[in-house]
């Protein structure tokens, strides 16, 4: 095994071009588990820890450009205002120690259907900035996940950053696990209201081979909100709309039975999470900006 | 001498029995300097690695180690063919192959060993061992194990149970029959039946199986290891190495928890074999994945119960059939069967009982000792039955329990009269009387939500929607010490000497300190009995006699008893020396009731006669070695289960308050109160720590912990801390503890073994509370969200 | 490969490090610092928690090579880094010993590093804050009650406003 330690981004891209099978290593929270348990023996480890720009973020207009290796702890502490859904999701990742190392870029690289950031990225709207010595391209996050633990990166590409739309309305994220902390998602659901263009977007985690948007549910809700003029009136949502939204969200699932949960439970739980997150987000929209959610 | 100012101050020795003395190893453990087995290091040492079977039942058609042996850095590769002497071992039945004997009977069974200069070299070499497996039909439950033509996993059994079991795939079977169930059933106004299931729980101690074997010049080996019972290891290792026991010197190294999981051998014999083969020290450390295959687990169980009562709520009869899955090898299955059978009814008076308990051989992971074994499984079922009966009678579940609670003088289903306090009703009363935790604790002052107080926690699954509170109660009974006629003894060597003008006590036992605090208690006993504050603990090793196992809630009782007895012998010898030396000078030396206190010899009336240091200086140390036994027990009759089987019983009661998100099936345990009788709390801080720790393990079994075995392949599906979940601090609630101290006159200081009882009733109390909240008849633990949502 | 790093204030190096080794292995097996514990090696127990450039992380998930040039503080170095004399305990260490928070002790070093970090950030945490901060550290012996007691005790002894070492 070789340990490659590029000092900067161009060097990292060059190394990846030279060794397309090299495994990028940032927080180590996925890769090191695989190495410790002898599940993986890459010929090259590509340590991105020294590439400073991966650890920074910046705001450009409507987007936050989040460096691939910015730890979840920073997303929680510093980016909760522009990225509230992602911050909520980040708070559910592993443990404080993991949140100090793990990053959205790592989550994308691993592309596990259970990764906590994916639903929040799908709901917010995001593009993955993939780079190689050949250049840089933006991959819409919905197109990034290509299969179980597979993504759209070319062998010579690395994730430089994720460009995430700044929130213009309330966002929510909820995840079911069988423990109250430090747990991998049995399933998860994210919802973002986008009042500026009167749309709603969602993300479903751990309930299909890849993270997915529940598009039928989104279309239904977007239409229902428009039809009744609810964006303008901010009236309570009809219970039938909430119910239908939950059912349609569950319909987006293609879950499996595994050691963490059954397919039937996942479908059921996604419906519940969709209803609840919609309720919380709509309450927040009605209450106006900056109001804390009240208990049910 | 009487002018010596030190003689004027009398008084109690500090840090004795009954005080919350600090742990002697506390400072080392908080600074990181305490040496656990996995921390050991030796110049020139090699790393041992185990190749394990991916199959649960297979014949090994061919095994080729050539390529592995040729790997640079590899010093030895060993298989079954390389074993020098005995090829099998076992705690109760010698049925476990040291390395697979041509057949593997469970997933993860050791097949070959490698010693190399780096763990990665050893792993790569192990991957180059070519094994050709031919898969065999699986035995996975009672039906497949006892079906006509079922593969017999251990043909030609000659063990003590072979003659009486109904099928060779049954390890042991124990009925307990008392009274006339048929007649009682005819009189019963209400009968409730139920089928229950307990999943396979793992001890999940944090310190992985580890040790270091160092070959010695005399052809023997020094083994430093984390274990629960040094001498039982020794007895099993010696025949495997083909060495006399005195050529194997074992020393306990730091143990990172045990809970039963270190009662069987793991890497002990393997490391020694590699060390003797290579002539080099060999260290073996399992990682978490391997640890799940490196030790036995709690027996999963299926239990069928029938309870009958009068309409007033008097229990008339109980029948039970308890089927425990012992997995591929016996381990302590026979003792688990004995516990399950004899404690099947719980802490209740029932005159008519018909119980059958048995353990199976299957191709599932081997199961054996885990905290509360046999009694944990039964308690989940009989407490569920008591709630069901209360519902059927329309009575309060706690009241029904109190009405039928056993007490001192009650007769167990085994015919044994309980001859010590059995405050079952009182424990229930106390735990029920504790104040209830406030409702809606997640609601903060401004009406906002603190997610951490809700089911799902930070995962943000509810802000209070569909959250329902439930309260449940349970009580349990556990035997203390080794039962059924086992010669259960401990050895202690105590030495009183003077150093720098001060008396010093050295205590030497082979007791495995696994975290329970036995060493603290030994220090306290020595202080109390010998009136000396400075106590030095000799490392636990095999240069002193056996201390038995750190299990069965027995160490404070039995090794504590041995230390007390040895101290008493030392005291008598010291007083005899004092009489011989100073008796002529002071008539009080001839009086009865002389004590040792605060470094002095003191009369019954408090007069100081001498300084201990003066007795000891310029003379031989005073020393005594005692082999101490609790009163004998007897085996259960094989047909009726009658017999004085247990030396002592231990009782705890729990009240669980839970909040259930009934839509998602997620549970938050809000509070888990416990009342337990400990006879005498030798160290109150340590005893509450034991109770809280045992309670938390019961919580794990109730709502999350299970080793999931694929029924189609008998392979473990979740051997990691990612998918075998144990409670975090956000899952574990406040655990208020009410300790009762009713002395058992048969035990040292009146104490009662305390470690296991809290693990029993915690689980059924939580499930009872979840039933109250959800309205569902839950019959299986761990309770999963699927069970609560009907998915 | 060679790895150079600072551990508990001392510049150290190790040679012949295998590229797949973790910082935890490096500390325990090569640098003679086994205080950080190897309970799960998958970031699920917190027993190996160390401060890496001041931030608590699981040493098992940091590749040894990633620690090149970095500053690491382990449980063995907490007292020294707090300026305490040889053999002295930090307030958190003392509180763990006093409160009965230690049984087998295998989780203790990681918990102490995590609790120490919490009290640096928040000298007077609520119970819920303590639970959230320690949720990445599993303990199998104590049921956590006495660990909470220890953190409360350490916070009370140090007191808000006083200098925390």
Taking all Cα atoms into account, the compactness measure Rg of chain B is 28 Å
Top CATH class of one domain in chain A: Alpha Beta
Global mean pLDDT of chain B: 97
CATH architecture type of one domain in chain A? 2-Layer Sandwich
Number of DSSP E strands of chain A: 13
Question: What is the strand tally of chain B?
Answer: 31
What does this structure look like?
The complex is a heterotrimer of chains A (296), B (791) and C (165). The model of chain A has no long low-confidence stretch (mean pLDDT 96). Chain A is an alpha+beta fold. Chain A has twelve helices and 13 strands. Chain A has a domain of 117 residues: CO dehydrogenase flavoprotein, C-terminal domain (Enolase-like, domain 1, 2-Layer Sandwich). The longest helix of chain A has 25 residues. In chain A, helix 3 crosses helix 4. The termini of chain A are far apart. Chain B folds into three domains: 171 residues, Aldehyde oxidase/xanthine dehydrogenase, molybdopterin binding domain (Aldehyde Oxidoreductase, domain 4); 181 residues, Aldehyde oxidase/xanthine dehydrogenase, a/b hammerhead (Aldehyde Oxidoreductase, domain 3); 215 residues, Aldehyde oxidase/xanthine dehydrogenase, molybdopterin binding domain (Aldehyde Oxidoreductase, domain 4, 2-Layer Sandwich), CATH 3.30.365.10. Helices cover 25% and strands 25% of the residues of chain B. In chain B, the strands form eight sheets. Chain B has a seven-stranded mixed sheet with strand order 3-7-1-14-11-12-13, with helices on both faces. In chain B, strands 9-18-17-16-10-31 form a six-stranded mixed sheet, sandwiched between helices. In chain B, strands 20-28-29-30 form a four-stranded mixed sheet, sandwiched between helices. The N terminus of chain B is likely disordered. Chain C folds into two domains: 77 residues, Ubiquitin-like (UB roll), CATH 3.10.20.30; 74 residues, DNA polymerase, domain 1 (Orthogonal Bundle). Chain C is built from six helices and five strands; from the N terminus they run E-E-H-E-E-E-H-H-H-H-H. A five-stranded mixed sheet of chain C has the order 2-1-5-3-4, with helices on both faces. Chain C is globular, with a radius of gyration of 16 Å. Chain C starts with a strand and ends in a 7-residue tail after the last helix. The chains are: A alpha+beta (296), B alpha+beta (791), C alpha+beta (165). Chains B and C meet through helix 1 and helix 16 of B and helix 3, helix 4, helix 5 and helix 6 of C.
